[in-house]
Structures are given as C-alpha cells and as structure tokens.
Amino acid sequence: RTCRAICPHVVLVRSFSVNFSGKSVQFQPKSITMAKFDLTAKNCQYLDRHLTFPLLEFLLQKKVFDQTSLLKFILETVSKTNMVDYKHDIRERLAMDKVHPDELAQGRANVLATLKELQAEVAPLMKCMEELKNPDSTKDSKSVIHALQQTLDYDIILSAQKLAKYLYECGNYNDSLSYLYVCMLVMEPNDKNYLGVLWGKLAVEILTLNWQTALEDLTRLRDFIENYNFSPIQVLQQRAWLIHWSVLVFFNHGKGRDLIIDMFLYKPQYLNAIQTMCPHILRYLATAVIINRGRRNALKDLIKVIQQESYTYRDPITEFLEHLYVNFDFEGARKKLHECQTVIVNDFFIIGCLTEFVENARLMIFETFCRIHQCITIGMLADKLNMKPDEAECWIVNLIRNARLDAKIDSKLGHVVMVWGKISTRKHKTWEGDGTLEVSGRSAVLKDEAGKVITTASGLKIDEVTEGIQLVVGSKEVEVLEKCNENQQPRLENSSTVVPLCVTRHLRPHQREGVAFLYECVTGLRMLEPAGCGAILADEMGLGKTLQCIALMYTLLKTGPYGKPLAKRVLIVTPSSLVDNWDREITKWLRSERIFTFIVGPNNKLKRYAQSPHIPILIISYEMLAKQIGELETVKFDLMFCDEGHRLKNSNVKAFGVLNRLECRRRVLLTGTPIQNDLQEFFSLINFVNPGAIGTYQDFKARYETPIVVSQRPGVLPQSIELGIERLNELNAITGRFVLRRTQEVINRYLPDKHEVVVFCHPSALQTQLTRTALSFYDSGKGADNAVSPLQLITILKKICNHPSLVSVQGKGDPESLVHLLAEQLPPWQRMGPTDSAKLGIVEALLEAMLAMQEKIVIVSYYSKTLDMIGGLCDHYNYKYCRLDGSTAGPDRSRIVAAFNNPANDSFILLLSAKAGGAGLNLIGASRLVLYDNDWNPANDLQAMSRVWRDGQRKPVFIYRLLTAYSIEERIFQRQISKTSLSGTVVDQRQNLSNLKLSEEELKDLFSIVDPNAESDCLTHSLLECPCAGIGNAPDRVTELPELCDPLDDLTNDTNEPISRFQLRPTVGGGGKHGKLGKKKHALKMQELMRWEHHRSPVSERVLEQLGLARSADEIVFLFRNIVSAPK
Predict the structure, then answer these.
(1) What is the Cα–Cα distance from 329 to 49, expressed in whole angstroms?
(2) Cβ atoms within 10 Å of 829's Cβ, excluding its own
(3) In principle, which of 593, 686, 761, 995 could form an S-S bond with 838, CB 3.0–4.6 Å?
(4) DSSP secondary-structure letter at 491?
(5) Residue 634 and residue 414: Cα distance in Å, rounded?
(6) pLDDT at site 430
(7) How far is CA 214 from the centre of its chain?
(8) Closest CA to 648 of 685, 689, 673, 613
(9) pLDDT tens by residue, 955-1000
(10) 1099 is a domain residue
(11) What does the longest C-alpha to C-alpha distance in the chain come to?
C-alpha cells in the first residue's frame, strides 16, 4: 500500500525560496517576526525530498507563510514521487477538483504493477532473506552473505537497490529498509552504488525515527566519506549534506548533544565545511553548547568561531553569546534571549530544546553577572532574566537547593549575597579575588592584593604547590595560577615593580625593553627636569606595540613603584577600525585575569562606564570623542593610550583639544610614523605627551626646526651644516628620553622572507596620448579662466596612470575644461580593458596566479573609483572578494578582516582603501600585497604595505609597488624615497632630510614630457647612473657610487651625550670638515636601491615565475627587487 510518513516533531521558518530541480518557488511570510530567522530555504538545499516533507508540514502548522502557495509547492514536490495517497490528500486540502475514483484506483494499480515487476526480478533474493530471518537456520549470517555474493548475479543486486528506491519513493520506508540492508551487506564498499545505499538507509532510519540505528549509519557514512577517493569539491559537498542530516539525528538521540559538539566544533574538516558552505549551522552548534552544561569548556572555542563568521552569518542565538561573553552587555543579552525563544519555537530541529535552552541561558547570564557583582538585588536580576521578581526569587532558591549556587537571600532587602572563596567540593567555584601565597619551610601565609594577611597554615611544602592546583589554606580554598621564584621574577629596572608573569612570558626581548622604557616614562623616572610622564612608542609597524601597552597597563593596574596600583582607570583612544582589535587583544592576553573592557558605541553610552567601577579599561574611537566630550570629562583616568597617534599631529583638530583637556598626565602615544610631513607635526606630538618639554612652538621653530631644515638645503654654508647637526643632536637628546623607535630589523628573525618589488610598467599608447594632452593644456592655459592648478593636474595624471577610464566625465560640466577634453579622446567603454593600463594588466595576471596558487592578496589604492574598477574586474572573472573603504561601518570592519583572515573563507582578494584601512589592520591571512598607486606621503604607503608582513605571518610575503614608468608616478616615487628621511633623521638617527615644498623648478621637472619609445631605461635607474646591465645583480653602493654619497654619511659619533640603553641608533656626530652636499639631491636615499636587484626588460622568466608575473613580461620596463630574510 502506498503511504506517507510525517515525523511528529518538525520545523520550518521564514519567507523563503526553495529550489528543486532548478525551479525556484517563493513564499511570502504572514508573520515577519517569525519568518525573519527562518532557515528552511537553506536547510532544504541539503536534504532529500522526503526529508523535507516533515519540514513543510511543520511550516503549515505554524502558519508562517501563505498556506495555499505552500500546499501547491508540496503538491508539485509530491507529484515527483509515487506517494499517490499523499498527493490525493494535498489536493483535497487545496479544495481542488476531486480526482475521479477510477483515476485514483488506476494510479494505485500502476504503482502496484511496477512493484510486482521489480519484486519478480529479485525473487532469488527472497529465499535468502527468509533464511537470514529464520531463527532455526543452521547457517550463520556470514555464511549466508558469502553465499549471496557467490551465487547471486550482480544484476539482481542492482534490481534490489532499484526496488528499495521505488519503495522509498512510495513512502513504504520499512520495506525499503529490508532491501537496502541486503544491498549494504552484499555490495563491496568500492561499488559505485554503495554510497547511494548508505545515504538511502540513513534517510529511512531518520524517517522511521530509529535514532540509535540512524546514529550508527551516520558514523558508517562519515567514515566512508572520509576514506573514499573524492575530489576536494565532492568531499566538501558530501560533508555539507552529512552535517544537515546529522542535525536531525543529534537532537533526537541521547548522546547527540555531545556528538554534535565533537563533530562540528572539534573535527577541523567539518568545521571548515560549516564555515565554507553552511555557516547557518552555527545556530544548532550554539544551541547544543548552551543546553549542555557539561560542555561549557567549548564556549571559548565556539565564540571564537562565531566572531570569525559574524560577517557572513548571525542570528539571535549567536548574538546572545556575543553580547554575554564578548561585550558583557547584559541588557543586549536579555533582549536576544527573548528573540531566541521566538527562533527556537519556529525551528524544527531545536523546538524540543526550548525549555532547556531558556533555563541554561538564564543561568549563563546569572553566572556571568555574579562574577562582577557580589551583591545583587532580586529586581535587578529579574530584569536581566526576563522574569518577574517572585519568579526570579523562586528560581534562585531552586539553584541553591540543588547545590548549583553558593548564595544566601535576604528577602527583606531583596538582595542575593554571593559567598566567595569558601571551601567546597563542587566542580564550579567562585573566587573572592587575587592574592599571594607565600610558602617558607612548611608554613604558608595567604595575603590579599594589598598585602593584608587573610589566613595562615602549616604543613605545606613548596614542592606540593604547582600551577593549577587547588589547596586548602586555613579557612580558605585557593587555586594557584602562577608559581615563580621571587629572585627570578622579571623586574623593571630602576624600580622594584614586578611585571606580572602572565604577560612577560609572551614578550619578546625588544618588547620587554619597550615595556621597561614606557614604565620609566609614565612614572616620571626618565623626565625629571622638566618633569613629564608621557611617552611616544614609535616602533615601526608589526613590532607589537599593542602587546607592550597591554603589559604596561596591566602592570600599573596591579602594582606601582611603591607596591600600590598606579592606575584604576585606563583610556584607550583608537581609530574606529581598530576598536575591536584592541578588545580582542586585551581578551587574548588577559582572558584569565578578569580584566573587563568597555567599548563606547551607539548602544554603549559613556555614562554606563562611569557607573561601572569594576571595568577598568575604556576603549573609544576618535570619531566618537566629539559625541562624548561632556561624559568623558566626568571620569578621572590614570593612564591614556592614543593609538595611531599621528592623528594628533595637528593641534587644531578637535580630538587633540578634547584629549589635552583631560586631567591625565600619563599619556602614551603609539605611532609607526611619528613624522609624516614636517617638524611642526612632530612638535605637536611631543607637546601632547609632555607639555612644555621643549617650550612653545615659536621657541622650537627658532632653535631646532629652522636650523635643521636649512642645513639640508643644497649649497648651504658649512657653518649652517654644523649648526644643523648640533641642534639635531640636541633635539635627539631631549626626545630620546621619552621617544622609543625600533625598526623591523629587530623582528626579522621571527618573520618569513619578504620580497619587495618595485615594478615600472610600460604606459599604453592611450595613457601616453592623454598625458601629452594634459601637460600641453597646462602649459598653454596658464592664466586662462579654465586653467588647472598644479594639484588638479597631479590628480588627473595619477588617474591616467591607474587607468584612462577614470578620467571619464559624468553629467554636464565646462566643455572647455581639461577633463572634458580628455574624456573626448577616450574610446567607447566597451573597447577599454586591462590592455589600456599595464598596471591593471599586471593585477589581472596576479589574480589568476593567486587563484591557481590558493593564496590571498590585498590590493591597496587611494581612490575609491580605482577600487570600483578592480572590483569590476573581479566580478568579470567571478573572483570572490571583499572590500574595506571609507564607507564601511566601524563594526563591519573587524568582521571583514576576520572573515578575510580565516583560511576557510573563499574570498581570496581584499580591496583596501589606503586611507580607511591602511593603518593598524592585521591582514596576515594574505601573503601578497599590491600597492596600486602611491601617495605624496611615504608614511601612508609604508603603513599600507605593513599590513601583511608582521608578527603572526607564516608564509613568504610578496609586496608589489606598481608605478607607470616615465610618468608623474615615477617622479613622486623619487620624491618619496627622499621624504622618508625626515622621520629617519629625527627618530631613526639616519642622516638625511628632504625639502618639503615644490619649487617652480621641481614643478617643471614633475610635469616634463618623456617619450616612452625613446627611452631604454626607467628614469629612476637612469638617475642612479648605475652602469649595471640590469640582469638581476645588486650593485655595491660603496664601490659603484662613491660620488653620490652625502657627506653626512661620514659624520662620526664624537658627541659627549650619553647613549640611552633604549636607543638603537647612535646620535649624529658633529664636525665641520665637510664643505658642501653632493650634486644629486636624491642620491643619499636613492642609493639604497643600489642594494636591490636590478632587472631590465626583458626580465628573467625565472624571476617572473617566482613573483607570479609570468604573463606580464611585456608590460614591465624595469623591476627592482629586494629580499629580506631572517638572519641565519
């Protein structure tokens, strides 16, 4: 008899579109709230048609969607099966024209006739099956199976499989199971039909509610999938199907809650499948962890995965955990718990877990709340748990009665008072606070953080005390977190303060030195006259400035020069893109130290922080400062960190004024680029951290800035050079007391190789034509009404270098303007492509190579339209990419970065705006970075290029700087490598400065026209006057360019100033034996290129293959390459 089977507990969700056999059907929701988080559309993609029938019936019961359209879809689906009666039933429910009885009988007869034919084909099997079932048979099952394999024809086994499938399509699952069982016994595992039999048997066991057998079949199928020779794509697809089918089993089997955690969270291949194919499964994984109290240890790992995938999937259940354990937002967790109940009620897979989920979720809120508050009002607790006060009190009483809570209730006052630190045999304990256990001989003294004796004990040996052990000391029970010999504890020099071992164990040597330097600065030990407590940590990008600051803040929160904590409140100001990064880093390094952070945001007002004395660290973005000025001044901060502190280079900006008004003397400014344009900006930073340390700006300019800048001008008198050197050394002596800068050289040993490549690309004919037109227009139009300024012309020329299409005009404008003149020379957009810009052609080739090599790449540009163009190229080739620019919301930035860095994420391209994301981001998920265009400020380029080669990177890194040869880009590059010396002279102690303004002569040089066809070398290599053949050698600058060396290179270090132990480079020596600067004003800095490999076109195929540029040989004019390797 044809039949239908509907599982009694099923689910359905939101307005969705189901796709079977290529046809998509959409259903509109009746209830937006109930349908919002529905996963039926996603789940049905991975389920067999028969497994979806219970889900669709559940959906009908919930009345979430339009019933008529849903029934029509079920009818269409059932029509593809042999379930005649079920089809007839659906038609009746639709009130359609009744099927004539003869027609219904004919349909049944056709099904039965086919069944009889198939049964006749497998008749030889029937006797064997009866023998297997006969308890009196003398043959064991193995003998019967062996006999079947030897005697039965293979076609009969295939007929049995066909019959099983036909019975399954009729809804006769029990009879189908018998034949599937025989096929599974007789078939060899390497049979191509064996996998289908395994899937069919699992489906039947699920539909007949045989959960124990279904679990066994699930394990068997999983082992088969892992051991079969599938392609990577096939095995990923098989795992995705198995994940969805297993959810049906796990939530109906007694051991399923543990098994789902073990399989989904701790089997990397299945976690990878979830993150790649079906991140919505995190709902069911999170539910399993929440309702399983015995697996709370999995929370940390689960939350990490949820945060990684929050950019691609989130729902109230995952957000509940984020609010509770990441943001410590109890109000947000309460609201999400209410939404969770709606989600669970409407989810087929977990509807049976509703009561358990709510109970355990409330307990999680309560436990987390109790870690912060020792005394809690019942009204407050009821509000957090979505309960009435009477219900909350009864709930707590039950917890105490069941020995799940150490507490006592004062009903009169309405308080719950937590009892901390009592001796207990319970597994989960709460602790009163931090302290020290001093063991001497066989005596032990327990002291609190202030040094007050709590209790004493005897009979305890130091050998018995190990990290992690729980001991009874007098009337208290303690857990030993750290054990160290007092004589071996790391101490900060010049003080008796001990840096906590929990952070020093993670610090590298240069970071330990950095923490010691910062500590001496903020305690005033390095700036006695004039007094100052500020510091600038100016380490280059990637040296771990954040970790050094975390070590400093935690040290000051715990102790100080006189034993008492020096800080109670810490303020961290950072760009919005780095807010979450700071929070993650603090959690990462101090997760076991019970240090909480408060992030100011739209839903987290600063007023709440002022009322939360238990939260010591406040994190706020520069963008939020202006909105929170009033509240910020009501809180007294003891320590301030300003990340990316070069934002304060202008004392007129609002952020500078707001922060400078705060009564906080201990200020630490973090920046990888302390000098970006001029010494006035450097003065602003100095005056912010240590006001008055070098007087007013007028004093600074007269004594330091003017002599130093004048001494670097060509043709200056020797006396001016001597004075400049003298003032430079004097300034270094002052700033060296509170400015610490180390270069990446100190961590090269920890990093993989870095390949830096400067690629000079051959301009296309269209680019050359447009450049000539623009320069001619500029020369002929000076003084005219439609003349363009030098800055406008520079912008236009840079756009032409990126791609000619970027100068196109949208809408109406001045028809005689330069932009319109250039736009008229552009061909139709359909005829334009990568061939019109060699840089875009190189990017196209690189992306193809990265896809083949399965590596990730970051492409950086200063123009959003350029990113749009590259995004269009990715869309054309169906490359998956993500993008981070100025329009990306702050909360989304960290999610984009986390998703991109996740190896399981299939987006292998990140389009990054240099201005929005060039600072502070950690993009070690990529091993390649392309700087598509450059900026006048070399610091911006250096910031952007340091995103991938930093601590944590494991792969060799390739950084490509693309420049259009013979163009304004090449001249900007030449000026850039001169400009970087400004930071080096004052902070790095290198000996070079560049002029900071463009003269008429420089503008003329900048806008000169060069014929690419008449040049055989790039301008930069010609400027070096390098005689090499350009075949990959790195010329020796000493032997090849003696005439290009700046006299400042030969200055000796004969100063009498003491060298700080925190200063990596010696001060510049004085002396006046040099008469004038060299002839080439770019030579000093550009000579560093003489240490790089020089490759002239045609570049070696081997080199191009190594760089992934094998397809781009024709586009390259010249190539400089430098390989930075860790010292052996």
Answers:
(1) 42
(2) 9
(3) 761
(4) B
(5) 31
(6) 46
(7) 38
(8) 685
(9) 899 999 999 998 888 888 887 665 444 344 444 433 333 333 566 7
(10) no
(11) 117
Q: What is the DSSP letter of 791?
A: H
Please write the tens of the pLDDT for every residue from 380-437.
Answer: 666 666 677 777 667 666 655 554 444 555 544 444 444 334 444 444 444 556 677 7
| pLDDT value of position 499 | 75
Residue 406 and residue 518 in one domain = no
Measuring CA to CA, which residue among 840, 766, 831, 768 is closest to residue 802? 840
Name the domain boundary from 696, 719, 739. 696
Q: In what order do the strands lie in the sheet with 739-740?
A: 597-599, 617-621, 570-574, 639-642, 667-670, 535-537, 739-740
| CA 77/CA 68 separation, integer angstroms | 14
User: At 1072, is the pLDDT very low, low, confident or very high (cuts 50, 70, 90)?
Assistant: very low
Residue tagged 């509240």 (tokens): 631
**C-alpha distances in Å from residue 998, one per residue of 34, 934, 936, 1002:** 64, 18, 12, 6
What count of other Cβ atoms lies within 10 Å of the Cβ of residue 1007? 18
Given a cut of 90, whether residue 856 has pLDDT beyond it is yes
pLDDT of residue 484: 56
Same domain (yes/no): 411, 534: no
Residues 527, 650 within the same domain: yes
Helix (H, G, I), strand (E, B) or coil at 714: coil
Q: Are residues 393 and 506 in the same domain?
A: no
Q: How far apart are CA 40 and CA 17, in angstroms?
A: 9
- The sign of the dihedral angle between the CA atoms of 900, 903, 907, 911 is positive
Spatial contact of 524 and 531, defined as CB atoms under 8 Å apart: yes
* Same domain as 523, residue 405: no
Query: Which of 418, 453, 485 represents a domain boundary (last residue)?
Result: 418
Q: What is the pLDDT of residue 482?
A: 58
**Is 920 inside any structural domain?**
yes
Query: What φ, ψ does residue 302 adopt, rounded to 5°?
Result: -65, -45
Phi, psi for residue 980 in degrees, rounded to 5: -60, -20
Tell how strand 375-377 and strand 617-621 pair up.
Answer: unpaired
Element (H, E) at 548: helix 545-558
- Establish if 24 belongs to a structural domain: no
Boundaries of domain holding 611: 501-696
Tally Cβ neighbours within 10 Å of residue 978: 20
Q: Is residue 1062 included in any domain, yes or no?
A: no
**Domain tally for the chain?**
3
Same structural domain, 548 and 662? yes
The pair of three-digit structure tokens given for residue 303, joined into one six-digit string: 């939350």
Report the C-alpha gap between 1014 and 477 in whole angstroms: 85
Dihedral angle of Cα 291, 292, 297, 298, to the nearest 10 degrees? -70
DSSP 252: T
- Evaluate if residue 1058 carries a pLDDT over 50: no
Q: In whole angstroms, what is the distance from residue 65 CA to residue 346 CA? A: 12
CA distance 224 to 219: 9
Place of tokens 């986390």: 898
Same domain membership, residue 675 and residue 759: no
Q: At 13, is the pLDDT very low, low, confident or very high (cuts 50, 70, 90)?
A: very low
Distance between CA atoms of 53 and 49, rounded to whole angstroms? 7
Question: Can you tell me the distance from the alpha carbon of 906 to that of 854, in angstroms, rounded to the nearest whole number?
Answer: 10
User: Amino acid identity of 10?
Assistant: V
Q: What share of the chain in percent tops pLDDT 90? A: 15
- The continuous run of DSSP H or E covering 473 comes out as strand 470-473
Strands 443-448 and 453-458 turn out to be antiparallel
Helix-helix angle 890-901:579-590, to 10 degrees? 60
> Which whole-number Å values give the CA distances from 937 to 556, 886, 978, 1021, in the listed order?
37, 19, 11, 22
Q: Which amino acid is at 1037?
A: R
Are 298 and 282 in contact, with CB atoms under 8 Å apart? no
Element (H, E) at 86: helix 84-93
How far apart CA 1005 and CA 978 sit, in angstroms, is 15
